[in-house]
Fold this sequence. Notes:
Layout: H1 13-30, E1 34-37, E2 40-43, H2 50-63, H3 65-91, H4 99-108, H5 112-138, H6 144-168, H7 174-194, H8 196-210
Antiparallel strand pairs: 1-2
Helix pairs in contact: 1-2, 1-3, 2-3, 2-5, 2-6, 2-7, 2-8, 3-5, 5-6, 6-7, 6-8
Amino acid sequence: MTSAATPAPTRFLEPITGLFAGLLVISNICSNRLITMGPLEFDAGTLMFPLTYVFGDLLTEVYGFARSRRVIWTGFLTLFVATACLLVASLFPAPAGHAASQAWDQALALTPRIALASLVAYLAGEFANSMTLSRMKARGDNGPGRRFVVSTIFGQSLDTLIFASIAFLGLLDARLWLTLVVSNYVYKVGFEIILLPATLYFSRRLKEAEGLDAVDAGTSLNPFRWRLV
Length: 229
């Protein structure tokens, strides 16, 4: 078992970070569209967004909170740049009669409110997820499946409430807003539970491949710290 305070070479951290950041941007682009799935109603970004929590679980479980913290901030900066690009692009008028640009405005143009909701909810939810898992493991909870589920329950509750409140509170009627919140939360947590066997499998394989199983003994949980301690 490796202490999280002792950085070690890694083979897969960079590609995981890239996939994590890519999922964030894709989910954010899809968030403007509301969809229905049976009795559930939620924004389309929710379809793939729970995978970021699976990656977050793997990062903290295998590499420790300090490295996970860096990946979370890398994802935030990637999401911020992508969001800024979309917002800036939407400020300029399209050529008259250019139907493709009008369709882009309808489909992809982000409002500042949606952008702010995505950024704030992402930071709060991801750090809550990572901190919860880190603390549970450091205190001797030997059930990785339990750590994954409990941390997701806590992180997704913050993420869902913050995003829905900033993005849609006052714009949707109370029934639709509450339906959106409940549907988002049920789907996200259910997604994590369904994927739990796969998450446990990849966690074991990643630990074997990296030779790491970080325990955050003495690691600072300050989310604004960049050092690997």
